[in-house]
Queue: 2 jobs
Job 1
Amino acid sequence: MKPALLVIDMQEHYLGIPGARDSFMSAAWWINRAIALFRAKGYPVIDVRHTDKAEGFVPGAKGYQTHPDIKLEPGDLKVDKERGSAFAGTGLDGKLRDMGVDTVVITGFCSEFCVLSTCRGAKDLGFKTILLRDATASFKPERIKFVEEISETVSLGALEALLD
């Protein structure tokens, strides 16, 4: 197994949306632990960011950047997407395959939208797909639990054991 960690849409903009802050910051804590684990094992971390040209949500725009609490590094692959799935029209599939990646561990915002869409897109493309428990965020906590229940979900401890 050669995994990559996908950090979906953990952008500053989403903290200002009612109901998102606590969930977002809790997920960030778990995401950072996953990032540290992937770095220690030498596996790639991918920063996926949502863009929307019609709304002016583009590189350089206020709120576009990944939140500074997410411990990314300059060498991490950055992928901009215009649709729900990180795989739709981004070339991410080919980039991962070029790195030899066969498994994606998915984290980020928003559980029931872009996270779930990316999980489904990864599966459709033949990647082993794992959702990291407690490392996704939403406006409504019950939606996080729903997505965890319908996905192949593991805890950080279980993921650590899988990567050993």
Note: Residues 21-41 form the longest helix (21 residues).
Job 2
Amino acid sequence: MQMLTPPALLLICWGLTFVVAGLALANPQYFDLLAVFMQREELDLQAFSRLGLAWLVLALLVLLVGDLACRRALLPRREFVVGLNANRAAELTFWTNLLFLAITALWILLTARKLGGLAQLATLALVDTLAARDMLLGNKLFTGMRLAYAALPATGCLAAGLLALPRGALNRRNRRRCRLVLGLNITALMLLPVVMSQRLLLLQFLLSSYLVACMVRQHLFGLRWLGLGALLFLAIWTLRESLTNPLILHRFALDLGLQKLAFYFTNDLWNSFAPLHNDTPRTLGGLSFGGVMELTFTDSLIRPALAERLEAAEALRGGGEFSLLTAPLVDFGPLGGAVYLFLAGFVFRLIYHLGRQRLIWAVIYAQIGAALLFSSHGAYVTHQNLLFSLIVISALARMASSARQAARPTPRPPLQVKPPIVAAPLTSLSPTQFRTRRKTPHTAYRELEDA
């Protein structure tokens, strides 16, 4: 289980980022398109400075110190318990997932209706994926509607956690429901990247489902499923890149997909180094707490006040977002960023500790752990998609727990009633029912009485 701890997941993510980016930059003869992509995003190799490397190492150390401080403060771990009505949780997950899928399907159908049908929308997605994406984004049904399909990894993760419980925890009907949730979600999240750039949701779903299964069973297992998920994600990645880069016709789709994947690792690493190479404005939480502002509808009030700072920060990065280790630096500076990362390390370890004791916390940690595995790509742990997913998981667990308590009412103590007094039954018809218990007088006493 040490491979599932927050420090281990962070080291896996950042180690893979450095290895892939380093190999791509060191072998330009094999990754010849990398220079083209970097030039398009105006990425300069001079940003990879020693100062930037020093900050990344320091940020990881501060996270580890926060993790260690939490470990020292925690009580001994208890045995793992479900903590809710598993069958009720499976039912709620199934119907909630259907609601999210229905909203997404209705959104796509109404957009396709404006174009003349699903065939026309599919044709547009194949010819010009960016135009199809803009068409969908301009036809949202209501504010925050994108959170509906963004929560599909959460319901899928909860279904995977329920399936990982011992076989007797779910009845056959609810086991089929959980399997159906997994099948529907993986299908939907494979199709969405064709018209929407939402490959991160598929990665979140695959990683969190595997993590929660390992957390529930308390050991690593099924590494072949992890490899199968990696191949599936690579296939969807390659398909998306072949659609969004149609002008590069002289390359095979797999070659193009791998080179673009190498560029993403390089770009993410560049975004983590760049703020140390330039004068960094303080965005005062505009990056680290952007998701909270989106969910609380306060972004329209706060972002105008930070508009100049946020625009200056955006000029420092290439494509994508700042990483988990760099966003606090841009927001609060070195000292404030270090405090933020210390608290983050403390909270990550606390949730991991709770996840080894209770199902709902295992699901929550799986969502956060999956975000840590691609933390070099952005601070997804504070993104509105993940925060909304955690709200959905908590609400479903709360309803399943309340159903369990209602099904098992506290028994009332029985009334203390004295038993009735029953007369002894008659043993004979003689009128004499009782015999004296007096002993016969002693002979000496009898002679004394006669005298």
Note: Residues 86-115 form the longest helix (30 residues).
